[in-house]
Amino acid sequence: MIQITNDQIERVNLILSGIPGGAQKAISSVIRRANSTVKAETVRQITGTYAISAQRVRAGGNIRTQVQKADGGVVGTVTFAGYKLPLYRFNVTPTLPIQRAEVKAAVMRGNGQTPFVHAFIARMKSGHTGMFERETGRSFPVTEFMAQSTAQMAGNEEVLEQVSEKAQETVNKRIEHEITRILNGYGG
């Protein structure tokens, strides 16, 4: 959780007391910037921890930021939603449908690939390519291997810790910047 301390709020209120709504505008801008930092840094940390590209993280999930007025203050929220991502979007070999090739996959960056004995890579009629396994000896039905969702990856302790540190740094830097901006007549 990222916080703006009481001392920081009092300082903003004291300096911007002569400007109507100046303190709230400054705090809102700081929170908006912190939300943007959380959004970007989460994707950066996920791609550093998991064997998946930023493009696939963004495509597989919905990351929303919001700033709203609350009981006498302003609150910023970042929400992550989405479905489980196909394992094929992570570190999988082979990448194209090849017959009789051993399929290997890794979800975490830095871990070796694990072989899947009965798995195969296929492109379905819908155009979706994935890593599948037959449930029986017959051709169908098949089951696709799935991995974590964007929200689950964002909830990883290492990812959360790094994102929180970066967002708190942003808050601490941006408070001074927003005070100066409003005192100079920008946004105030």
Structure, explained:
The protein is an alpha+beta fold. It has 2 domains: 6-82 and 150-183, no CATH class; 86-148, no CATH class. 41% of the residues lie in helices and 27% in strands. It is built from 5 helices and 10 strands. The strands form 4 sheets. A 3-stranded antiparallel β-sheet has the order 4-5-6, with no helix packed on it. It has a 3-stranded antiparallel β-sheet with strand order 7-8-9, with no helix packed on it. The radius of gyration is 23 Å and the shape is elongated. The model has no long low-confidence stretch (mean pLDDT 90).
Short synopsis of the structure:
The chain is built from five helices and ten strands. With 188 residues, the protein is of the alpha+beta class.
Overall mean pLDDT score?
90
Distance between the ends:
28 Å
The shape, in one word, is elongated
The total count of helices amounts to: 5
Helix coverage percent:
40-55%
Largest sheet, described in full? 3 strands, antiparallel
Name the structural class: alpha+beta
Strand percentage, roughly?
25-35%
Record keyword descriptors for this entry.
188 residues, 2 domains, three-stranded antiparallel beta sheet, 5 helices, 41% helix
What's the layout of helices and strands?
Layout: H1 6-15, H2 22-49, H3 54-60, E1 61-70, E2 73-82, E3 84-86, E4 91-93, E5 103-106, E6 114-116, E7 119-123, E8 129-134, E9 142-144, E10 146-149, H4 150-154, H5 157-183
Antiparallel strand pairs: 1-2, 3-10, 4-5, 5-6, 7-8, 8-9
